[in-house]
Amino acid sequence: MSVLALLLAAQTALRDTVPPYVAFPEAGLDDPAVYAGYQTRLYRDARGNAIQIYMEANSGRVVHLWADALDESLGFSARDTTGAPARLAWCGAATTRATTSRRVFSSRFTAGGTVQLGLFLLGSMRVERDFQYAGRQRDSLGAPFVVPELTQLTDAIVRLPAIDRRRALALLGARDGTALRDRLLPKLTATRGTTVWSIRVEQPSFDGNHHLTLTLSGDARRSRVTLAGRVVTIRPLDAGPLELTVEIATDGPALTPLGRGAIFNDAFRRFADSLHDPRLEREIRGFELLTSREKLMAGLPNFATYFGRDMLMTALLMEPVWSDTMAEYVIAAALAKLAPTGEVSHEEALGGQAIRENAARYLDHPDAAILGNLQAVRENYWMVDDDFQLPVVAARYVANEAVSEARKRAFLKRWRA
Fold first, then answer.
1. Backbone angles phi and psi of 352, in degrees to 5
2. For 74-125, what is each residue's pLDDT tens digit?
3. Half-sphere exposure of 413 (CA within 13 A, CB side)
4. Is the pTM of this model over 0.90?
5. Cα separation values, 155 from 33, 235, 345, 371, 413, Å
6. Distances in whole angstroms, Cα of residue 280 to Cα of each of 19, 272, 276, 290
7. How far apart are CA 128 and CA 125, in angstroms?
8. pLDDT of residue 417
């Protein structure tokens, strides 16, 4: 390899290495006892979207939340040879990269000895949340978990008359009922080389339009891996700690992140810079991770999506320190999701959660239009408080003398229809 090629490779590696953008608990800022074995790190991927990795020592659950346009999640559980939760620890730097079709993120962990991994769940954060709310993280590592709506939808399609079944399968891009059922659970495959072993966990969306993968890998000279059903066992071959690399990848769409220069006004940024306060810096970084051109998210990891009430309330509370463009992003996000009756969306369902809700709609009212667009975003208009908040936010934007009349007219003209 030429000197130039080596320099280019080194620059690429350096560019792809990312430190945590935010971490909890953090020495000097947090009381570790408050977190009771819960650790989390948040990163930015190669497109600037937030990735949160959290580990719960009490259950051994490790979850990668991808706060992107599909609100994705990739989780698994780790246990030792006694069946007790295994403690993983972060090791080394994370890396990220992107191609025209995929975003990839990789992190490294260590364990104290033999570890078993299972209960792989790849899909929507909302499904992971329901999985944990139901206490399913305590199931045996090989236990399957499928949301009932998708099982019911699969059964309903398989039972259709032959002509209707072929049409339904074509809308979902599946050759037959078996191929459709294969999408309900992740597929695990093992590869063992002389220097590296890997376990690949693949999960397509139910409609086949998007794909998540989680790849476990390690040094075959220092550890041995076995795959039995849906359970992965990794055994060390020497006295050192067991090292494990976890790589996640998605072909789902990304959000368009906003940095602090777009979020906060000049006066606040000067004030924050003058304090050199690590706690305030972490708060600002956390806010950046929740903010995109498309929306403000309510919070990570449990609410990594649009919440109308929370977004509008935040716009009012943050007004003194926000840039004058932020109100436009907030109002635009709310107007884009208005019901035909003018109601403001309280919450959106994306990706896997949208598929889940649209599957339930199809089961109630079989319609090819629903089946052909299972990932259509679902809006929740149940709450009424956000209906009252939007006019207040809009009125304060119109009354803001710092924004020119020409800019206000240009912004509002886009939504006149």
1. -60, -35
2. 999 999 999 999 999 999 889 999 999 999 999 999 999 999 999 999 999 9
3. 6
4. yes
5. 48, 40, 32, 14, 48
6. 18, 7, 8, 16
7. 5
8. 54
